[in-house]
Amino acid sequence: xxxxxxxxxxxxxxxxxxxxxxxxxxxxxxxxxxxxxxxxxxxxxxxxxxxxxxxxxxxxxxxxxxxxxxxxxxxxxxxxxxxxxxxxxxxxxxxxxxxxxxxxxxxxxxxxxxxxxxxxxxxxxxxxxxxxxxxxxxxxxxxxxxxxxxxxxxxxxxxxxxxxxxxxxxxxxxxxxxxxxxxxxxxxxxxxxxxxxxxxxxxxxxxxxxxxxxxxxxxxxxxxxxxxxxxxxxxxxxxxxxxxxxxxxxxxxxxxxxxxxxxxxxxxxxxxxxxxxxxxxxxxxxxxxxxxxxxxxxxxxxxxxxxxxxxxxxxxxxxxxxxxxxxxxxxxxxxxxxxxxx
Length: 342
Known about the structure:
The chain is mainly α.
């Protein structure tokens, strides 16, 4: 019996490795599907609201999708030129950062501090933060390259969404349990995404105004980064502040860089510690370690889009594990300490 249990465990682990390897190889296909699914989840409530008011399903879907496309197009038109300019200026900023770090060694020697320039440059990579910005924007560009495919997938998912409960009732012997589990999953993920999107939008707009008021170049790009990186839990808001502070330092000096840093600290405190917890309630139901690990894992598996969607993906996995008695213990391990005590 013990051998059978061990064999069963090893078989499950082997299957998990195969699935992860398959997802890694299929990332170019999986990423548009995931983006489409989560956009559709956000769009479902207004579509259902319109359908309840006797609006035909096709008209409701096309109307909501039209609003989303219009908003996305407007944002793209506003920031597209700024992104191109920023990416072209990126090598210049990296060179200036390297030169600023190189100037630290002589100053340190005057004060009698032993500083090895090569070691300092190895420890403090001046291009790391800017490279992260470039990679994130490039990943976003790759997703936008599939925008037509994503748009079609969103439309088809929304058209099928209203008929899904009837299909589940027909296909399964005990459909109510499946419907309840699916409803719980959709409700939690949709609530998280909706609140996070509004909070991220507020963060991005406020960061744009701050950078524009301080005279930092490319405020639209920096605001877009604050919007996108706010989806990354815990460290996203910190990562968004680094390029803004570095640009302020290179362009305006240390005083302005300090002012931008304090401004970002205030923005992140307001939106991340006051506004978002008020609407998110008990939070996402994941431990702090799992939040960080999910960021690393999904980022490695699916790239920058995986980092942005790490929390909703992990929430989905947790709810799926919680639906099965044999895997519920794993869902408990993924949750916070208060949930385990409860």
